[in-house]
Write a structure and sequence with these properties.
The protein contains 1 helix and 30 strands. It is mainly beta. The protein folds into 4 domains: about 100 residues, Immunoglobulins (Immunoglobulin-like), CATH 2.60.40.10; about 80 residues, Immunoglobulins (Immunoglobulin-like, Sandwich); about 80 residues, Immunoglobulin-like (Sandwich); about 80 residues, Immunoglobulin-like (Sandwich). The two termini are about 55 Å apart.
């Protein structure tokens, strides 16, 4: 047994053999069969008599010492692995070893496509979308056929279909030679006409967005003709996963704590009995300095806690306040500051996922930072 590994290395280097057998005594017979399926190898020892013990080394740092003559092992990555079988027969007081190289191939490239459809049955206008999933790094091409005739390429097909029956297919091809197809049958005659549209100008809603003169980051949003609506609700969506709302009522005021683009959306029930909605995009290009200087918090994004570096000229108490994206205070604590650089740690593990604003105050100085909680 002590010469097994030197003999094994010699044979592998000399002739590229995939199996090496090192027998210490004549009574034992360490041979096995390896069958590969995907990234799993199935191993069966040829000597399965009672009393014969088998130990396995799969070549990836994992062993099996259950003494079973039949085992299987799944590899986490493609490559070549040296599988070693060690056999011991206590009845004959012998032991033997053998090895084989097994090759685990990389998984084949994958791809899939699924077609979804929306339509305007009044104008017989159909929109088909190819929802594609491919192996990372692969480029793809989608070809569209209608009744086996090529009509377009790209992820979206817009087509006017009137009368008859149509078989619409999307054929996906990737740079890794993977192909997939998805089809659907369309019969415009089966389409039902949509309900009649509501009377003109009764199922719409509009609002104004007015910035305050001295606070360019503070806006007032107001419904036009609010007496026509019930159940008015507002939301604000912005960068870094910011989401604020819902706010209720015909008007509300909001102070934006950071620059960027924001989508303001309102929904309501109009008095004629229809659901209405509208949205506007506004741009905040500045935040007044009087609201505090911004400092960096790290790590950002964070999951458990964030740290801020503050330099003090003298000892002072530091008040720490955390606000959510709607301006509500969710955390308050204090820390003792000392002359020099202070590392302030703020726990956020118990806060919901979202964007938060941290405010540090010592004396008349206010510092602010923004952090995204994952």
């Amino acid at each position: 047994m002590r010469n097994f590994y030197s003999v094994l290395s010699f044979f592998l280097a000399l002739s590229g053999l995939t199996a090496v057998h090192a027998q210490d005594t004549s009574a034992c017979n360490a041979t096995f069969q390896a069958t590969i399926s995907g990234n799993t190898v199935f191993l069966r020892a040829m000597d399965s008599l009672p009393g014969v013990r088998h130990n396995w080394n799969f070549g990836d740092g994992i062993t099996d010492n259950t003494d079973s003559f039949m085992v299987n092992h799944t590899y986490s990555a493609p490559g070549q692995y040296l599988v070693i079988q060690m056999t011991t027969d206590s009845a004959h007081n012998c032991h033997d070893s053998t090895a084989q190289l097994v090759t685990i191939a990389a998984p084949p490239p994958s791809c899939s496509v699924f077609v979804t459809e929306t339509s305007d049955s009044v104008h017989h206008l159909y929109t088909f979308v190819a929802n594609v999933s491919v192996t990372p790094g692969a480029s793809d091409t989608v070809r569209w056929t209608i009744n086996d005739t090529l009509v377009a390429t790209g992820d979206t097909l817009i087509k006017t279909l009137t009368g008859g029956r149509y078989n619409v297919c999307a054929l996906l091809s990737t740079s890794y030679s993977c192909q997939s197809q998805s089809c659907m049958t369309i019969n415009p005659q089966d389409s039902l006409p949509p309900p009649p549209p509501p009377p003109a100008d009764t199922c719409t809603i509009n609002f104004t967005a007015t910035a305050k003169d001295h606070n360019p980051n503070q806006y007032v949003f107001s419904i036009i003709n609010p007496e026509r609506y019930d159940s008015i609700s507002w939301t604000i969506a912005g960068t870094d996963s910011l989401f604020a709302g819902p706010f209720h009522g015909e008007s509300f005021k909001y102070t934006f704590r950071d620059t960027g683009y924001y989508l303001i959306e309102v929904t309501a029930n109009a008095r004629p009995g229809c659901f209405v909605q509208n949205a506007q995009v506004i741009h905040i290009d500045s935040v007044p300095k009087s609201q505090g200087n911004y400092i960096t918090s790290y790590p950002n994004p964070a999951t458990a806690q964030v740290s801020l570096s503050v330099t003090l000229n003298s000892s002072a108490a530091v008040a720490i306040r955390v606000y959510n994206s709607m301006g509500g205070q969710v955390l308050s604590q204090s820390a003792s500051g000392y002359p020099g650089v202070n590392q302030i740690t703020v726990p956020i593990a118990n806060l919901p996922i979202g964007v938060y604003y941290i405010e540090l105050q010592y004396g008349n100085t206010i510092l602010r930072s923004k952090v995204q909680k994952l």
